[in-house]
What does this fold into?
Amino acid sequence: MNFIKTINHIKRIILIIITFILCSVTGYINLKYYNGIDMYANQYGNPILMLISSFFGTLFIISVSSYINLKVIKYIGKNSLIYFIMHQFVFVCLSYLVEGLFKPYGNSVLYKLLENTIYILVSLLIITVVNNVLIRTPLATLFGLKRIQKTKCITKNEQNNSGF
It folds into this structure.
């Protein structure tokens, strides 16, 4: 039985490596020879290469995520609609603050990496707080969330008087 698990484990790792290589190679070719992908500017380079790279990239992410078992990732996954709805609003609000902090440093790769890390961490924090407040209101059902009902604590005297 352990032998079969080992074989399946090896197959999954090989799948991860192959999908990463294929995604990277097709993405690089699309970037180098067809001016890359810029969805904001509606430029997709070679559409066939873009689709192949997207397919293998998605397969790679799904394969890698099967190994990750973090409560934070599960929480975000269960509440992904609220994160999807709010991320652009939070990013726009953060852009005024973050770009003001990093504008004097130019477009250095290190500062862009730090800037994007701040965007991600702060937006996750803000959206998580908003989500925890939202699930306690009647608006929770609007976003596909289960509303947390306030429960009344029953004292021993109330429990004895009620016949329980």
About this structure: The longest helix spans residues 2-34.
